[in-house]
Design goal:
Length: 198
Amino acid sequence: MVYVGIPKGQGNQEEEVLKTIQDGDADELTIKRFTESREKPGALWHIYAAKDTEKIREFLKKVAEEQGQENPVDHDPIHDQSWYLDRSLRKRLHQEYGVQGWAIVQFLGDVVFIPAGAPHQARTRDTVHNLYSCIKVAEDFVSPEHVKHCFWLTQEFRYLSHTHTNHEDKLQVKNVIYHAVKDAVGILRANESSLSRP
């Protein structure tokens, strides 16, 4: 989080931000960072374990159906990013499916690491919950430990409609694997003579 702007002259905004943080199920230490240390919060994240993805997907489809919405085959309630799990939906997800995530408030200067395949959602100033205006920098990367997960995500994206924003292979996992292997072979060949010595 590289910038958090707090508007001047809006007296009760701190109370609204505190309520949003509390309703977001943030822990007491996080709340104290805002109330006592006077740090600047920019975004409220909810991050879930990758292993719970299918349960979350099933839950979102169930809720959509209850609300009379369609669940087209070439769309995905997680990748569509059309849902925000508010407090009541998060509670229901936990009660009905045993899925509980982590609430993280990202303050100015904080970094949030999201593991590969972990469903997540954030609330910032431009959405319903009003935290302060903020600018954050995001960087995607593929670590060797998570190549399998990233490849699986790429496969999921293929089943989305051709007009879906996530349809294309943004991660380029096959290219990452190819270049990693090519670099490893190049290093081994460059050091071949020293490796063959007893």
